[in-house]
Amino acid sequence: MIQTTTVGNYPKLSSTKGDVNIRKMLHRFDKGEIAAAELTAAYDQVTARVLREQREAGIDLPTDGQIRWDDLVTPLAARLDGFHSGGLLRWFDNNVYYRRPRVTGTVRWREAIMAADHAKAAREFGGPVKAVLPAPFSFAQLCEDQHYRSMETLMAYLVSVLRSETEALIRAGARHIQFDEPCLPKLPEYGVAAIAALNQVIAGQSAEFWLCFYFGDISGLVPALREFRGQVIAVDCVSQPRNLDITLNLDSAHNRCFGIIEARNIKLERPEQVRAQLERISGRHPDAYVSPSCGLEFLPHRDALAKLSLLGSAVRAFRGGQ
Length: 322
Description:
There is one protein chain. The chain has helices at residues 22-30, 36-57, 74-77, 115-125, 136-141, 151-171, 191-202, 222-225, 242-249, 271-284, 301-318; strands spanning 3-4, 80-84, 88-90, 97-99, 102-109, 131-134, 144-145, 176-180, 208-213, 232-236, 255-261, 289-292. By secondary structure, it is an alpha/beta fold. Strands 1-12-11-10-9-8-6 form a 7-stranded parallel beta sheet. The model has no long low-confidence stretch (mean pLDDT 96).
C-alpha cells in the first residue's frame, strides 16, 4: 500500500494567530528575558504542533520538522569536537543561507545529540517518527575543512561520529533513519565512495535506513545506488522530473520514496495530476512512499499545510479511504 512521509524540515512559524512564535522566543532568550527551560518548552510546543498537523493531514511517517535545527549540518557540528562556526553560505540555489561549519581539529562524537528529542517526538506522535541526519559525503562537502585538508580523511571521521549518533538514535527507539545526500547528484563521480561511507555508518545496525536526494539529477548515480545497503531510496522528482522514471526503473531491491509534491513553490498541484502519478508509481512499486520534493520550510506555513493536506487526501482516496 502506498504510504506518505515528509522529507525533513517544516515551517517553524505558524500562520495561526496565538501559536508559539519560536523566533520571538529565541530573541527573548538571547536577551536573557526567558530561561533555557522556557525555550525548551517552546520548542516542544512547536514540535507537537508540527506532528499534529502532519497526523491531521494524513502523513503516515512524519519527521519532527527539525524545529530545533537551523540547517542540516550546523546543529550536529555545534555539538561535536573539532568544529567551529563559520560564515554564511547560500543553501544550494535557494534564497536561504546556512552557517558553514569549519573543521579546525580532530572530529569526535561526545554525546547523543538527537536521541532524547527524537524519543519525545515519537511519544508525542504516538508512533514512529523518521529521524534525519546528513550523509557523510554531503556533511563533508558542506563544511570548510581547515584541519584534515582531505575529503577522504574527513569523511572517515564523519562516518565514525554518524555511526555513534545512529546507534544512540536506535537505542532511543528510532526505527526509520534518513540520511540526506543533497550534494552527491552534482558530483556523481564520488558516488561509489559516498555510498561506501554511508554503508559503513549503518553496517550491522537494525533500522529502516533511507538515502535521500533532492535538488539534483540522479542519473549519474544509478550504478552506485545499487550498492546501498539500506532499505529506501528517496528522490526529488520535481526539480528533476526525469528522476521519476529513473527511480521507477532502478534495478535494485530497495523500496522507493517519490518526492512528487513541489516543496519550493506555493502553486498547488491538481488532484488529478497527483492521482496519475500515484497510479504510475503503484503499478511498479505498490508499497512505495510518496512525499514533498524536499523539506517544506521554503514555504509559508499555510501553503506547506495545503500541500501536505493535498498529499494526504490524494493518497487516502487512492487507498480507498484508508
